[in-house]
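Changelog-linked ticket: FE2/S2 (inorganic) cluster example.
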Amino acid sequence: MSYEAHFRVWRGDAEGGELRDYQVEVNDGEVVLDIIHRLQATQAGDLAVRWNCKAGKCGSCSAEVNGRPRLMCMTRMSVFTPEETVTVTPMRTFPVVRDLVTDVSFNYDKARQVPAFVPPKGVAAGEYRMRQVDVERSQEFRKCIECFLCQDTCHVVRDHEENKTSFAGPRFLMRIAELDMHPLDAAAEVGLTRSSSAQEDHGLGYCNITKCCTEVCPEHIKITDNALIPLKERAVDRKYDPLVWLGNKIRRRDA
Ligand code: SF4
Ligand code: SF4
Ligand code: FES
């Protein structure tokens, strides 16, 4: 079946823009990205859109479809009725470059701020050995395709530009959780407690576990339940653990 769909697409740049209306042909089995490409090919040759794999794996085609953060290449046109207007806008949390393309460098800055894996002493690279049971929990987080839809959705930064300096966002708090669960990470040996650092340096306390990030993740990673809540629990455990408290007190006295 083919039909003409009514699309409203945001057109503009950092200076400002508007929603423009288009009638575009839709065929069986197509996804929103197909329609955006047809629009580009037939009516709006200068429409800017970022994409790469068209298979839900590169994380490039993130945008908001009818207000919901989604991958355009994984959003089937069959979820809309032929009469429905489909509105496509750029991710709201990041500055617009042009049309549907946003500047996501906020995320690269946050990635750089997370301390890297600390290799264990006395084990040469290539000789790391881990048991499956020890990586079972954190392996889920490696499915991340860095689409930044969770970062776009999180209200802590979506509605509050001022929080961007102190909050890493769900994707990078999840990265800290992953390293904290890593069986070979030797962060503690260099004096780094990842859960405490998440709280003190990366804004874990801003997260009020609304789970909105989890709802939009195209990889279905349980970001809140499996990464953020355990990280919060570890941070709190450390803070109120009487042995940790005593150790800190003795260290302070020695200093
Ligand atoms: S669960 Fe936390 S990180 Fe995820 S969207 Fe809600 S506040 Fe943001
Ligand atoms: S955790 Fe999910 S939503 Fe967030 S960047 Fe990774 S794949 Fe995208
Ligand atoms: S084009 Fe790669 S995820 Fe959509």
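Closing comment: Example verified and attached. The chain has two domains: 3-102, 105-254. Strands lie at 3-13, 16-26, 62-65, 68-71, 85-89, 96-98, 101-102.
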